[in-house]
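We now fix the convention by which a protein and its fold are recorded. The integers have meaning only within a learned vocabulary of local backbone shapes. A record is reproduced here so that you can trace the correspondence yourselves:
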Amino acid sequence: MKLKLLIIVFIPFLLFAQSSTSYSRYGIGDVEYSFSTRSAALGNLNAAYNDGLHLTTLNPASWNTLTRTRLEVSSKFNTIFLSNSTSSNYFGNAEFTGFAFGFPVSQAYGIGAVMGLVPYSNVSYDIKETSITSNNIEYISRYEGRGGLSKVFIGTSYRTPFGVNLGATFDYYFGNIEYLSTISFSSSEQLKTEYKKTYDPKGFGTTIGLITPNLSKYFKSESITDVRIGLAAAIVGNLATDTMLTKRSSVAYDTLSIGAVDMKVPLRLNAGLNVIFSEKYLVSLDYAFQPWSKYTFNGAASGNLRDAQKVSAGFEYKPVKGLGASFWEQIVWRLGLSFEQTQYLVNGTGIDQFSVSGGFGMPMGDENSLDISIQYSMRGTTESNLFKENRIALNLGFSLGEVWFLRHDK
């Protein structure tokens, strides 16, 4: 019953999760790599993760290590400082970043089953510009966007006789994205005009992944206790997108329904390397690639998108469990760095992002944890009439084992 209650409470917040960012007006907005608070502390990727204490949606092959029924939920609190060459502003918000529920089917064969609901992208911006016409009449142009794309998934993992772990998911994508443009004049003699575009994409996709067996024996070092390579691909089919255009003014209201058009979202590739030293020090290196230059909407490409690439490095210290260890001696510590060539290309300038993160996991009983991370990221530039964003994100997540859901007979 506790599990059902958590899922019901958190689902409504996901579809309205937004974070103010000027560049999300292009394409389908800011892309989410991972919903996990643990991953956020390690640079947001970690495709070679192979520990059954957390659920990751990046690589379904990681579910082969599940030994308990698990529920993982995460949320994020954003603080964004936005500036250009003439002004600056501040935004703050909170958003629910997703949940996943999984359980082991066969530990001997590494079969785990996981399902969940996570965001794929977020669109959220609100920009105002004040201008003057040739007749010396002041007017304000306002551009707003909200919504995004979400994903429901169900999948499984399997360990082959050779020790290679495989995983796959069946994904359903859906969402709602609204773009609103408003022109209003200071003079009451002029008419206010509003244009709104609404997109409702939906369609199917899949995520496939692979994680190697432990390769530490090839390094012939007692201090290297685990080495794994992970590969994953997230494939999104063409999304049928219901499109509606609306024009509203003081004297007229017109709606034009274009019907369903195709939105083509490119596949995303992830590769990662995890190395564990002395069973408690983890170092991760990851790379992600997504060719957004191939994105099309109704057959047309976007001149404001380019291929996206991201590299990240993470470090985690996890104490070896022992009897008599105090609460503080069981805390897991994490650090991460990442550099991202985002998909945005605005006014001929590519938008890059650098992030640094850190966090920890506090024990909440046997194989349960409260995870907290904080991330600072810097994106964009004030040159070429663009915006610079400084963001601080506080992530909060719970990873809960089956001990929370056991039924005790009287």
Remarks:
- The chain has a mean pLDDT of 88.
